[in-house]
Design goal:
It contains seven helices and eleven strands. By secondary structure, the chain is of the alpha+beta class. A six-stranded mixed sheet has the order 2-8-7-11-9-10. The protein has a three-stranded antiparallel sheet with strand order 3-1-6. It has a two-stranded antiparallel ribbon with strand order 4-5.
Amino acid sequence: MLSRVWLVLGTIGLLTGCASTKDLSYFQKSAGSPDQVATLSRYTPTVQAGDILSIQISSLNPEASTFFNPYTSFAVADRASQPVTPTTTSPLQPVSGYMVDPDGAVELPVIGKLSVKGLTMAQVRERVREPLREYLKEPTVNVRNLTFRVSVMGEVSRPSLFTVPNEQMTLLEALSLAGDVTIYGRRTDVLVIREENGQRKFGHVDLTRRDLFASPYYYLHPNDVVYVEPSKVRAATADRTMQLAPIAISALSFVAILVSRF
């Protein structure tokens, strides 16, 4: 009876641990591939309708500058003083800032509406600074997009929604923040869902190949969704475990009864 119990437990262990090194290793070198891979230029996000921008204005006259900062609070100041690192957002937290309206504009005190859609953060800074020179001496503008978020789902250790303060995140960084792909995740076909021009695109990235660094989905965009599909091993393991678990439990119960009697 004991031999049967160990056989059942050993079978479960084999089913839960069958995965080859080739399936799990990243950045594998294919035959004839060079040791250097060209990468794409870094992705620079632009402002879109619905974004929430933090616009902080300062000048040589602090009292005059405060009039242009209606959303300034201790919370915003503390957040701005912290290191710029991606943070987990769960659940969604309210943020204070200027929402870009459907026409692609934000409305600032005194200055009025400014069109910012399609501009980078550097261009938005210049767009805001120009009219401020009429009211402030040597104005300084700091602009950040508070709604740059990336979702990581599926076979990762910590699925979550991440806020990216520095507006730069790669696929590998997002997976690292999520605790990496589990042993049951398909590294050869990671799905990136992206919305562009009113359409959703579905990109596939093979993490085991070195040419992933040249993929248009290597640099993530705002609101991208990264999904790691479970492998066949996961499905087979779950199915076999569900079938064998009652047998194993019954066998262990029987052993416990024998031990208690003798």
